[in-house]
Specification:
By secondary structure, this protein is of the alpha+beta class. 17% of the residues lie in helices and 19% in strands. The chain contains 3 helices and 5 strands.
Length: 106
């Protein structure tokens, strides 16, 4: 089974199994990963599922889309590999993916 690791801003790690076809936000909320709220339910309308993809994985998970860009542009903790996890549909090929969580979600 494929696993993703979420790393909090203070270094605490949370591993979760990936389920093909779910969003990364769903994986996080289904596994009670602290720091991923998903207040809008996955509509890319709130930014409370912001993650920073490990740069070694950014090509594999792909770039952010236009809706993500609108939300991420307002985020002071945005980094070059920032994504909204609600817009990332997971794949078994993502086994070993690591994402960091910002200190604050918008």
């Amino acid at each position: 089974m494929a696993v993703v690791t979420f790393v909090s801003h203070d270094g605490e790690t949370h591993a979760a199994s990936l389920e093909e076809g779910q969003s990364l936000m769903q994986v996080a909320t289904n596994n009670a990963v602290p720091g991923i709220d998903g207040d809008c339910g996955g509509e890319a309308a709130c930014g409370t599922c912001h993650v920073i993809v490990d740069p070694r994985w950014s090509d594999r998970v792909g770039p952010s889309g236009a809706d993500e860009e609108q939300m991420l542009a307002m985020n002071p903790e945005r980094e070059p590999t920032s994504r909204l996890s609600c817009q990332m549909v997971v794949s078994e090929a993502w086994d070993g993916l690591t994402v960091r969580l910002p200190e604050f979600q918008m």
